[in-house]
User: Fold this.
Amino acid sequence: ARADHRDAVFTTLLRGARSCTTYAAILTVHGDSAFGRAAIFGDTNDATNITQVDIPLAKVPAFLGVITSRSPYIGPVKTGKPDVDRVLVTMGGVPPTALLAPVVIRDRVVALLYAHQVGATLAPMDVADILPLAGDASLALSKLILKAKSQGYRKPQTSDSGPILLDGPPSKKRTGAALDEGWSTAAASTSRSPHGASRPAGAGPRAAP
Assistant:
């Protein structure tokens, strides 16, 4: 589906993932951390807990692996580190397995899709329909960047058409700023080589060792 705003792209991805899982969230990647941006738990928009999420990537091997490889992952996310696992608990609980799928622009991961079935194991067949959506989101965001470049770069406008809260309270505004910085960087890169976004590498998710 055509999306005229960045937030509409993420809303489409989030809803698509939630249709196959119990919990789905979008996190934006900024430096060495991933910040919660939007989430749906069951039939409820989780606009409160998700905006407090700040995950240090180095402490969560599953998250860091997806950033490094730029490919999806399905497997355990529990770290055994109480401070980190407490954050995961606020994201629908700590599941036996979860899906992490990167949103990639010009070989840079700007966001992560995180989805799981709460207490049930998530199998590859459960997420077969989700993986193409992450690739579509990457392409849609790349097209928005090219459109912005052709018009003279301006900070992308926030869509007000969707019911999902995509910006947190002032104390967590890094959530929005994270993507804005990634957007600016990707825009500069795209202007040098306007060939669209990179899809997540691999035909399917990496399984946990």
